[in-house]
Every structure is written in structure tokens, then in C-alpha cells.
Amino acid sequence: MIKRPWKRREYFYLFFILPALAFFGVFVIYPFIKNFLITFHSWDGINDMVFVGLANYKKALFQSPDFWAPIWHALFLALMGITIQNGLALLLAWIVDKEIRGARLYRLIFFIPPMLSFVVIGFLWKWILEPNYGILNIFLHNVGLDKVLLSVLHLPDATAVPWLGEPKTALVTVAMVNIWASFGWGFVMFLAALQGIERDVYEAARIDGANNFQEFWKITFPLLIPIIVTVSILTILGAMQQFDLIYVMTGGGPAGSTEVPVNQMYMQAFQNGMWGYATTLGVLLGVVLFAISIVQIQIKKWLVDW
Questions:
Q1: What is the pLDDT at residue 300?
Q2: Domain spanning 50-59+67-129+164-305: CATH 1.25.40.10
């Protein structure tokens, strides 16, 4: 096939995309390149940068827990997200899709938490979980479960459960709050996917004698695999980039037990004045997120083909 050469008038149309290209170059490409170059320097954000080569990468990867410890904490949040959070979202979406009574009300209720900012949610749950006058500990004390929990946690000297003040409980507590705050997004996406499945398929399965579990396992679940993988990718990426909820609730404490990568980057840059090192942590986090995304996309392709 012979390609027709462009006329001069057609080249003129390229000028219409120049503003977008300029905007993209100035606010995306240039900061990305500049950010990468900063990682090879020691910089306090004010004075001149000092070239240090790969020292920041060496420190982050091999000499300091500033990178790996927050990564493991974020991976724990991601694991809790793709199991409990997404499992709960799928279960609730499946129940609501059955056209139960009050389904519209449930849709509204389940989507309220994601409509709130993580800052608001953080302050709300920090008040609920306060050891001395928080609603949760007051309830546990009234029903006599506070002593049981303290015994299980091996905290005999404590008078109330320190949900956010004890390394044993802080990360799990933050993960539970994150699940409550985020499951609504998955619920909406799962519900939309469920409503896109033809009802005739279920009617045919019922005629063949399939029960609810068989319908879900043989029909619903295979058809939801693409959206399940998509929601899982978004969940993991969101957990790995979590910041404001943890910053409000724990600030990364106690004893660094809830430190996550973005929180560590913030501390290194704004509190310690180590902008070069903080930028290095950001680049390494980007590499991790890219690798996770590639793996999940390949898993999605494999599951869809399977």
C-alpha cells in the first residue's frame, strides 16, 4: 500500500497539539528528569547540590532500614487490602446485586467512607481508638473484653488497649481503618461488573439445578476475573502510596512500626532536610510500583486466557 505524502496544510494541524506537548514537557518530563538527577546529589533544598554518585542508592538499599522497612509495612497494607478489603467489597456487591430489600440504601451507605478524605477519616478513627475516652475502648470495657484483649496482646500493665500506641497493634489497626475507608471503591466496581452479566446465564444455570455457590464459582467469579485483577492493582498501588491516613493517625510511629514509603520520604525531605535521599526513596518506590504493575498485568493476561 502506497502512503500518500502529507500536504503542507496537514502539517499545520500539528500546531494544535503543541500547547499540550509543552505543558506535558514542562510539568511532567522535565520534573521527572530533574528528580532523577537529584538522586545523585546530597541536597538540603536550599544550598548548592553536592554530587555523591550512587551513595543515596547504596544507603537506601543496603545500609539503612529507611526503604525496606516501610516497603514491608506497605506490602502488609496491600495484602490486607487485596484479601480482606476486596473480599468484603466483592461479597457485599454480590449480596446487593441479588436485589435484596433496601439495596439502594446499602449502595449509598457502603460508598460513604470513600467520599470522605483520609484526613477526616484519620481524625475520626483516632478519636474512636483513643485509649482512655475512645468509644471502642469504652464499649470493650463495658462488655468485659478489654482485659481479654490485653491478656492476648501480653500487655498486663496497660489499663486500656493502646490501638495506635503499641507496635503490636498499630499497623494492624491502621490496616483495618484503611480497609473501612477504601472498600467502597471496590464495591462500586464489582457491583457494576455484576450488573453487566446477563441474567439469562443465571436462569439457565438454575434450570440445570445450580445453587447459589455453584452460580458464583462457575459463572460469576470467572466473568469477574478481569475486574478483580484491576481492583487488585488499584488496591496495591493505593496501599503502597498511602500517606495522609498514617500521617494523621500515627505519624509513622510508634517506633516506626507504621512507617510507609511516602511517609518516610516526607520525613527525610521536610524534617531531616535530606532532599537528595528522599528523592532516591521516591525513585526506588516508583521502580517497585512499576514492577508490581507489570507482574499483575501478566497475571491478568494469564487468568483471562486460562
A1: 76
A2: no
